[in-house]
Every structure is written in C-alpha cells, then in structure tokens.
Amino acid sequence: MTIINIDIISDIVCAWCYIGKKTIEKAISLHQKTYPGGKNDVIKITWRPYYLDYHQISSLTMSSGVLRSSVDKSEVAKLRLSHMSAEQLERLRQRMDRTGRSLGITFKPGGKVGSTRPAHHLIHLCQTTLNYPIEVRDALVARLFEAYHELEKDISSREVLREIAIEAGMDAGQVDECLDSFAAENVQESEVDREARENKEATHSGVPLFTIQGVFSVDGAQDLMDFVEIFGRIREEAQAAA
After folding, report:
1. 117-165, pLDDT tens digit by residue?
2. Phi/psi at 45 (5° precision)
3. Residue 119: which of 66, 61, 63, 198 has the closest Cα?
4. CB distance 4 to 231 below 8 Å
5. What pLDDT does residue 63 have?
6. Neighbouring C-beta atoms of residue 180, cutoff 10 Å
C-alpha cells in the first residue's frame, strides 16, 4: 500500500478548478482500477483556499477585492472577458462545454457570484478544525462546485451554504456558528484568509494547482494521464525504497 498526498489550491467559482477536480478524481479511479496493486493505495486530498481576484472590477467590489454583494455571473464575465472578441468568447464557451460534458459537468451560465470566503471556511472547518470523515468533506466540496456551476445557486448566500453543508453531513449548530461569524462587523483575518493570501502570492499561474506528494506540481486542468503517470511513479519509488 502506498499513501499518495494531494494538495489542491482552488476556488469554487473557478470553472477550470471544477474541471480539474473531476479530472483528478477520474485519474484516481483509473489508477486504482488498472495499476497493479493500485486498489490498495490510499489517496489523501487536502483542499487549499484561493480567493479569485475581482479587484479590477472597481464598480462591483470593495477595496479588498471581495465582492460587496452577489452580482449576476454574466455581469462579471462581461467585464473580465471584455478583451475578447465575440468569436473568441464563443470558442471559449464551446471548449468549456465540451470539456465539461466529457467529465459529466453541465455548465450553466446563470446565477450570481459573490465572495467564496465563507465557503472556504466551511471546507476548512470540515476537513481540519473538526476533522469530519473524508466522505463528508468530499460531499461538501462536490456540492459546492455543483451548486455554483451546474445548479446556478449563489454559494455566497448563507442559506445556500447552510443547506449544502448540512446535506453533506455537517452539524447544523457548527455550520451556523461558522456562518454567523461572517455577519459580524470588522471580521478579523483568519487562518484561512492568511493561507489564501499566501497561496495567491505563491501561485503565479493561477488555479487550479495540484501538488502531489509534496514534489510534483501540476497547474491547470491537465489531462488525466498526467496524473496517472505521477501516481505510478510515486508507487514505484515507494516500492523500490521498501
């Protein structure tokens, strides 16, 4: 048995992060099904926070770069992609749709986008502070991505986040305590905020960024065989060192 550790720096509202999530999950399944002894390997994923930067959209944000309130996704996309022609936008849309469908994702353009800070704090609470079972953490992350990209839900909404977290298996009281902390004024910088800032400073090529076994770095939503190859190398090195 080989333990493979994967750190994923991402933001929920990043479409390529959702694609990357689905890709690495497919790669893990392929490794466990096809690599000799791979079914016995333990894959440990840790989700790391990253806040996508909207500071250039001054009309929609505060000086900190966090959206004041939720706004239509189409409004943000129009501003962020204003440098692209209509033809380029259509090619991008087709590429996203095609890639998404190949992984079981149906991207929807509707809905609103806001700060993902509370969502990242819920993930941290689930996987680190309270150390919930991995199944709960996985369900939480999966539901957050699906809610935003496929169900057109506003994951900056307290009600939406509460529903998702409880459905994933988190305790309602603990969820409320976490979300209520964001209602207070002058919320201080947290451990999650500091890590998100450090991740942004260290991640020059954007997200997603995968760090596997603390050695292999893969940025962007790569082909699943890139991951499968890395998993195989890690397993072979572990066997050689045994």
Report:
1. 999 999 999 999 898 999 999 999 999 999 999 999 999 999 999 999 9
2. -105, 135
3. 66
4. yes
5. 38
6. 10
pTM above threshold 0.85:
yes
- At 109 the three-state DSSP class reads coil
| Residues composing the chain | 242
- The tokens for 26 are 């497919």
Contacts of 127 (CB under 8 A, 6+ apart): 46, 47, 137
Mean pLDDT of 205-227: 90
93: Cα separation from own chain's centroid: 20
Where exactly are the structural domains of the chain?
Answer: 3-241
Residue partners of 188: CB distance under 8 A and separation at least 6: none
For residue range 30-49, list pLDDT tens digits in order.
999 999 999 999 999 999 99
CATH for the stretch 3-241: 3.40.30.10
Return contacts of 185-192, CB within 8 angstroms, 24+ apart.
Answer: 190/121, 191/124, 192/49, 192/117, 192/120, 192/121, 192/124
